[in-house]
Amino acid sequence: MSCQLPYLSTPRLLLHALEPHQAERLCALANGPKIADNTASIPSPYTLQTAQDFIEGMQEKFRATGLLSLGMHRRDDDELIGVVSLRINAAHGYGHLGGWVAASERNQGFAAEAATALMAYGFEALGLHRVGSQCFSRNKESARVMEKIGLHYEGCLRGAFLKNGVHEDMLVFAALRSEWEHRV
């Protein structure tokens, strides 16, 4: 596996490392509606220092821990609209998708487009056997994205995640490389 963050493109998006000058934009977007509430690890409030640390650490986290995070940018103006990630477990040939899209950019298919590109990268470039994801059971939008990109519903982990003092149910989705190859 290369230690360099990839640069991926889709018909409407560019997925690439964030630059230090994007910290304020990242901070503003990450503080938007439903971002922290629907994700496992984004703090609220999301401070400028948190954004700067995230950007500064992207390359090192990929190299050291297999966490591949890329900024999701509109192709027409390279404006940051979200973040997509793939947490790689090389020992098991598994990748776990994550991400979020700014409130103003939702319901336009950007999440599915970015996740599909990252899933393809995981299967094709990294040789992963399985790519999956999970979401809170109340997050119907994320569940819909997972199904749209070809992940299969595998079940519900009841009370599996403690979020803001509440044990949340997690819906689990995944696809195997053989399923991906037959899809494309």
From TrEMBL:
Family according to the record: Belongs to the acetyltransferase family. RimJ subfamily.
This protein's UniProt keywords: Acyltransferase, Transferase
The keyword Transcription regulation belongs to this UniProt entry's keyword annotation: no
PROSITE patterns (UniProt xref): GNAT
Name used for this protein in its record: GNAT family N-acetyltransferase
KW Transferase (keyword) present: yes
GO function term, MF aspect, one: acyltransferase activity, transferring groups other than amino-acyl groups
SUPFAM superfamilies for this protein: Acyl-CoA N-acyltransferases (Nat)
Source species taxonomy: Bacteria, Pseudomonadati, Pseudomonadota, Gammaproteobacteria, Pseudomonadales
One Pfam family here: Acetyltransf_3
Domain N-acetyltransferase: 13-175
